[in-house]
Amino acid sequence: MSRLPRSGLLLCLLALAGLMPIAAAGQALPDPPLDPLAASMAGEFALQSGQMQDAARFYLAAAQAAEDPVLAERAARIALLADQDALAGQALTLWRRLQPQPSQTQQMVAATLALRAGQTRPARRALEALLAQPDGWRAAVFALSGAVGRQPQQVAQRIEEIVKRGQLPDVLQAWLAFGGLAQRLDQPRLVDRIVAQVIKRFPAEPQVALLRAQWLREAGKPAQARAVLDGLGDAVLLVPALRLAVADEYEALGDPAKAAQLLARGAQDDAVFARRAMLLDKANDKAGLTALYEELKRSATTPNPVRRMLLGQLAELLQRYDEALDWYASVPGGASQGMARLRTVNVRHAMGDKARAYADVQALQADVSLADDVRRDAYLLEAELRQKDSDPDGERQALTRGLAAFPDDVSLLYARALMWERQDDIAQAEADLRRILVIEPDNVMALNALGYTLADRTTRYAEALALIERARVADPDNAAIIDSYGWVLFKLGKPRDALEHLRRAYTLQKDPDIASHLGQVLWVLGRREEARRYFEEARRLDPDNRALRRALQETGA
């Protein structure tokens, strides 16, 4: 017996309650109900189902029926997010009538719509009104960002105008936000002008140099970015958060060894030691790892559980497996001991003693004295090790046993869904992801994973878009979700719209999947040299990436 998706079930319940009519399959939705409560409920259900246009339409109907400016505002904001400018305009008109004294949000919506429509004078007036208000620059940034995909040239001109007229306040974050927008728009001269102003206005701020380095790196100028970072000197050592941020930037420039070297200076704690270990491992610096290991051993005659765990992991990285086993065995009872026993399984597997490793991990699964999350993680670890051993049957059995012990555990369901997708069993992957969404209807990871899988591996693009929209509402700045959104737009035949979102995703996270998607979209748009650069970047990040392999096969690059 077929089952309605959750959104369809909710709409059916509304219909049975007499709150709204139902359209026959394949027909357009009927006019929204006039009852404000019913319309707002339908709008919320549509929003939760990822039907953004319908949500905006229902909320607008509710606002019209109730003469409610709050509902009009909600309709306008949802319509903007859904790229439904006509609906947003109707909601704004109603909102202005119901609330004649304009709010900052109202002016932000007006500015966004004017920018998207290429209306220079209205956009200029709305932005000036925002920038004249305390903290109004934030709303101005939101409005400009909302029009980048439609009118990049219009947005760049307005930013340049604002900077030239001195309309930005003397607030560092405001200048950095506008500089970041200029960087997204690939306007190097405008970025340079903003940076010059920032340096002039905030000469003693190391954060300014850090942001300058980030912009240069994102503009494809790594040598210049490196020079800026090198020029910071010892100033970064005074602020722990800044030292960590600069180290992250060195890592992003492909120099984890320099990042580790920087973190070795200044105050140390277990978090910094762990970060140094990760960076040294990434740099394949065995000498550095050895020095850190010896340093930690000397500095703690009676190390705490966290330090013992770190020493065990360092020994593991150095392939000093016997020492790693000793450190893990020395971790005292409590939460840390369960993690130590899981790491011990890893070590035995790495030593080649796979039978002992699997026996130990299954003993963990059966040990009812352990915390449930440790036992659950033991099933996940066994599945991971089976995958490493190219044992798909064993991986599947481990996850199935895990779900028998922990029914409906979201982590186990998610791991199994990814397993099914790798094994090209899309129906089973979808079933597990939908099961997660029954348990946790707003699980952002599952929404995005299911939406992306449907977009990438099927032709159910409209359904994929609805799922990704729900994830996007919950977490609009998540790089993986933005990538999924761009990818489904590409699949829907909108490569130019997709490009802006994929560029933003790659700015947020240097990921081989995103780079592969960017390359494929650019290839379709005829920008093949640029596409090849992204394919090479994806290859550098992960030469065996599946998205890259598919992109190269489909484009012939």
Overall structural class, as computed from helix and strand content, comes to mainly alpha
The number of strands is 0
Distance between termini? 45 Å
Question: Kindly state the mean pLDDT as a whole number?
Answer: 87
> Residue share in helices?
over 70%
Low-confidence stretches: 1-29
Number of helices: 32
Fraction of residues in β-strands: under 5%
| Main sheet specs | none
Using only CA atoms, what is the Rg?
27 Å
Could you say which overall geometry the principal axes of the C-alpha atoms support? globular
Features:
single chain, 557 residues, disordered N terminus
Question: Could you describe the 3D structure shown?
Answer:
The chain has 557 residues and is an all-alpha fold. It has a domain at 203-267. 74% of the residues lie in helices and 0% in strands. The chain is built from 32 helices and no strands. The longest helix is centred in the C-terminal third of the chain and has 17 residues, at 372-388. The chain is globular and about 75 Å long. The model is unreliable at 1-29 (pLDDT under 50).
